[in-house]
Amino acid sequence: MKLVKAFILSVAIPTLWLNSAFAQIYDFTTIAGSAGETGATNGLGTDALFNYPTSVVTDTNGNIYVADYGNSTIREIIPLSGKWVVTTIAGTPGTTGSDDGVYTNALFNYPTSIAISDNGTLYVADYANSTIRAVIPVAGSWLTTTVAGTAGTTGSDDGLGSAALFSNPTGVAVDGAGNLYVADYGNHTIRQITAAGSIWVVTTIAGLAGKSGSADGTGSSARFDNPAGVAVDSAGNLYVADNGNHTIRKLTPAGTNWVASTIAGQAGKAGSLDGANKAARFSYPVGVAVDADDNLYVADMGNSIIRKITPVGTDWVVSTIGGRAGKRGSTDGSGSSARFSKPMGVATDSSGNLYVADTYNHTIRRGLALPETFVSFQGTYNGLAIQTNSPSVANSGPFKLVLTETGTFTANLVMGGTRLAFGGQFDQSGNVTNTITVSGSSLWQVILRLDLAGGTDEITGTVSHDGSESQLLADLAVFGKANACPLAGVYTFAVMPPSDTDATLPQGWGFGTLKIATTGIGKLSGTLGDGTKFKSTIPLSKYGTAPLYSLLYGNRGSCVGWLGFTNDMIESTVEWIKPSVAKGYYARGFTTNTTLLGSKYVAPAAGQYMIDLTNAAGNAMLVLGGGNLGAVLSNSMTVATDNTVTILSGDVTSMTLKLVPKKGTFSGKFLHPLTQKTVKFQGTVLQLQDFGAGYFAGSNETGFVAIAPVK
Fold it and tell me: Of 84, 135, 148, 77, whose CA–CA distance to 107 is shortest?
């Protein structure tokens, strides 16, 4: 019989969450600078050095510009034949000042933010000078001028050019019309700078200088707490990384006014939770960028991660796309496997790639946008490989695979006593072939196919070894804290005897208990019909199926199959293999298929029966067979409402039976009519099937015991 689960249940269990939307995946690499090393050296890639870079921006040609805070310089990174060439285009490393001029004649004082206009002009928030600077490409050179503010003088005055004052500005952005926007960190305000001919006019559009807070509102009624980063979308809306509030704010133009609202995070609540709107958490966000689709990207400095904020209807959904909260480092990698150290700047390019100023690593990182083929399929898959044409212990076993958002995976397959640990990468069609060498020479081939189009959330495949082939099937695990398994609870089960009459096979019923947690993980333990103890971990799928696998008899035998759940009941075919043994029951061994039956069990309240006895007298029948009895024997009995049992007349002259309502089990003993010896029996009650079953041991074979009401 083919032991697969495909037709056990035709309708999937409804769940609260299945393959919810994930963010775009990025593969992060270091393109310039060397982690842990500071300096100002120009050069190729990691030969170049930076000193706390805080901001990045890209142009339409793929060039990158960096505000190199610790060096007080502006750097350019140009892609060239697969390499990245770093040069200094403005400022002198290690020399602070406020001079305007060409190239290194210009001086800066710890620049923190950089933006670029459509004509290629760079705008810089010159933090310690409290000014806004322009770095203009002129005839193959770069000319630095001061746009607004007076170097060395802090304040909050609006006005023209140098008459306007700032207080340690940390963020700057420019819109399509050439207007500038400034996150005026020390004043807790957002400023706008517009060009009137050759003059720049500075106005405060949101917040009130000297008044920190988190209030949403219009113009000066809004409050900010050290706003650090600012970005502008194609519609002219502004987005602010409100550093001290741990939030992301939006400023919407309304006539001549600006209306501030909080779109993500909650003021005063630092954290790293992903989620929508105020359910999300940030920790001192600094840099913010916006792409052509109005998705936002945030350098979440306090968490050392990169976040994405996606507009979904009226909601803003926050996800972590790079790094792991609280885990600092410099490792390159995709998604959560990458590590950052207090990144402060983020930018996008026209191809959807990201660039990060990884401030405390002193590096520039690129996040290459990967195909989203595997994003909705990532997770843990559980299943079985079963040899169906000629069952054997060595060629069947449990399978577990953990799939990442990029299609890479790690897997474990246990075939008999042989553990195969391997990993790899699915191709874009969802296929992969692995050849695994065990003990230096034994070759196994595992072919896997991930269903990318059918919506099954399954992996199928084959496992081949020494001319044998096993069929493999695994399902995506979907249950957890956020999505409780609807099958959670306690189940009792019984394993049907392979034969009622064949003395070479067990005639006793196996029995046991399965406890399924809300996470969908079940713990099964019981006794088979020959007295062998067995146990297994049972991961439930969304289809109401679960792989059962238990190695037995010193790893020389097994019990394997797919369990299927329908209406709180279990009915499944399992394969039971017992090897030949030196002594004990069924020493010649056997390979057989049998049926496992089960049902959810609920302990009865006081005054209720363990199983449904529809007759008023509480009459039931207890039946014994096999176990060297020579015949099927039965006795009638009555069950009181407290579940105590009285054995009535029948084929067995001496018998006791005890029901255990708390556990759904029973035990008892009887006087064997042929040997005149007392024989013990035990079993379980299948509550929904209104039936009880178990086993006893005869002299050289096991027998069955069954309980059923007389209706």
Answer: 135
d(Cα 625, Cα 180) in Å, to the nearest integer?
91
CA end-to-end span of the chain, whole Å?
35
Would you give the distance in Å from CA 514 to the centre of its chain? 27
Q: Exposure string (b/e) for 612-644, b if CB count within 10 Å is 16 or more?
A: ebeeeebbbebbbbbbbbeeebebebbbeeebe
Sequence length of the chain is: 711
329: phi then psi, degrees, rounded to nearest 5: 170, -170
Strand positions, DSSP E, 185-266 = 189-196, 199-206, 217-218, 227-232, 238-242, 247-254, 257-264
User: Rounded to whole angstroms, what are the CA distances from 519 to 14, 401, 478, 538?
Assistant: 15, 18, 9, 11
Per the CB < 8 A criterion, the answer to whether 345 and 363 are in contact is no
- What is the CA 363 to chain-centroid distance, rounded? 28
DSSP 4: -
Distance CA(29)–CA(339), nearest Å, equals 10
Q: pTM of the full predicted structure?
A: 0.69
Retrieve residue 578's tokens.
Answer: 């017992």
Residue 23 pLDDT? 54
pLDDT, mean of residues 684-692 = 94
Percent above pLDDT 90 for the chain: 84
Looking at residue 8, its pLDDT comes to: 31
What is the residue type of 683? G
For residue 552, pLDDT over 90 is answered with: yes
Residue 103: per-residue pLDDT: 95
Neighbours of 254 (CB within 10 A): 10
Tokens linked to 35? 């982690």
C-alpha torsion sign, points 590, 595, 538, 696: negative
- Residue carrying the six token digits 């056997």: 590
What would the pLDDT profile of 191-250 be if each residue is shown by its tens digit? 999 999 889 999 999 999 999 999 999 999 999 999 999 999 999 999 999 999 999 999
| CA 455 and chain centroid, separation | 19
Q: What is the pLDDT of residue 373?
A: 87
Which residue in 60, 58, 62, 32 sits closest to 115, CA to CA?
A: 58
Query: What confidence tens digit (pLDDT) does each residue in 51-87 have?
Result: 999 999 999 999 999 999 999 999 999 999 889 999 9
Q: What is the pLDDT of residues 463-507, one digit of tens each?
A: 999 889 999 999 999 999 889 999 999 999 999 998 777 888 999
- Amino acid 258 reads W
User: What are the tokens at 170?
Assistant: 């940390």
Identify residue 348 by its one-letter amino acid code. T
At residue 429, the 3 state secondary structure works out as coil
- Judge contact between 111 and 69, C-beta under 8 A: yes
Q: Are strands 83-90 and 73-80 parallel, antiparallel or unpaired?
A: antiparallel
Long-range contacts, stretch 252-256, CB < 8 angstroms, 24+ apart: 254/218
Task: State pLDDT tens for residues 528-539.
Answer: 999 999 999 999
* Cα dihedral across residues 37, 38, 39, 40: positive or negative: positive
Please, which contacts does 231-238 make with residues 24 or more away whose CB atoms are closer than 8 Å? 231/173, 231/288, 231/289, 231/290, 231/296, 232/173, 232/174, 232/175, 232/181, 232/290, 233/290, 233/294, 234/176, 234/292, 234/294, 235/294, 236/175, 238/173, 238/181, 238/190
